[in-house]
Write a structure and sequence with these properties.
The complex is a heterodimer. By secondary structure, chain A is mainly alpha-helical. Helix content of chain A is 63%, strand content 6%. Chain A has one domain. Chain A is built from two helices and one strand. Chain A is elongated and about 50 Å long. In chain B, the strands form three sheets. Chain B has a five-stranded mixed sheet with strand order 5-7-8-10-9. Chain B has a three-stranded antiparallel sheet with strand order 1-2-3. In chain B, strands 4-6 form a two-stranded antiparallel sheet. Chain B is an alpha+beta fold. In chain B, a hairpin with a 2-residue loop joins strand 7 and strand 8 (276-283). The chains are: A mainly alpha, B alpha+beta.
Chain lengths: 68, 355
Amino acid sequence: MWVELDVSLARGRDRTLANRATRLVQLLQRSSGDPEEWVGAQFDNFAQATPEGNLIQVFDSRASTLSR
Amino acid sequence: MLSVPEYQGQTRDHGRLFRVLARTVTVDGSDLRLFLAGQLEDNRATLARFTEGLLWTAPLVFVVSGFAGYFVSRRALNPISRLIASVRSISTGNLSRRLPVSDNGDELARLATTCNEMLDRLEMAVGQINRFTADASHELRSPLAFIRTVAECALRVPNLEGESADAFEDIIEETKQASKLLEDMLILARIDSGHTDVAFETVDLAALVRDVAAKNEPMIAERFQYLSLRIEASNAFIMGDPTRLRRLLWILTDNAIKYTPEGGSIEISLCPGKGGIAVQVKDDGFGIPPSALPHIFERFYRVDEARSQQAGTGLGLAIAKWIADVHQGTLEVESEGQNRSTFRVTFPLSVLPGE
């Protein structure tokens, strides 16, 4: 029972992270073609509005973080 | 370009546990690498609360489930206990009784039905044996009486030679024993078949004890034995069958006389006993070994060779026990090893008149 609860909580956490990732991808796709600063501001808004938003990071191909 | 593969796992940072998801997406032709993390501290706290709750509630759950299990099992086993009690209450004396059969058709009902069918067969078989014993005993009485009469007549013939006279006397003695055995078997067969008439009336136990002692005096004198009679209970009236009670006292006294050597003493007493009134017959005889005491009231049980040398059917004490039982009395025996036996029949106060 204890193990089942542990596994269930971990799966719940994974689902939450996957949903956040999906919403983030949708945001990035919607911002496609927008100026980099605008995209950074959108991401910051997203991070603020999301619980544990400070634990989300996006790197581009130059290893730079996406932020305003 | 970053090419970190898709990743999902746990990591620890400053003692805190995190769940991490890494994903690569392509937006406008460029690859973006997403890292999302979530604390697992909440999960750990939830698990800790759950563990604590378990520790607090587990003993209670164990106790409650233990009691519940006990009551459920008791409830489930109750029918079996009733079945066992019913089976135990059935003996050769009441083979007509049957086990209760529930109408739900479960395994217990089928078991009870099967037991009842077996009891039907058993009752029939025992009935046949009882009828045979009763019929045989009844039918053999007349020829035995005839043989005894003929032998007694032959003994009166004048100038009968010594050996012939001895032979006729042996015949008379053996027919007496055989008649006694048949009579006892007939009584027990009637007891088993339930065809016994017991007529209760007020009986003066003191008078009965005196009478039985007096009638046995010639036999006691013949064996040079000493009889002591003590009547210590006044108003010793009980409700009973005088014929049966006389037979009970006769069996106990006759046994005492038979198993007491010449010159020995026999004591018959009537005194207040445990919760009633007791007749006690104490003999100075061979005694009864402890191993034999539990079987002493069984049919055809003879204690040992020394006692078996005495004439007897081995049925008297079984009959005496039955008579005590139908009077709600108890028949007990005590023996002091090799030289003293005491038979005590106690009639409860509840059967005293006016009680």
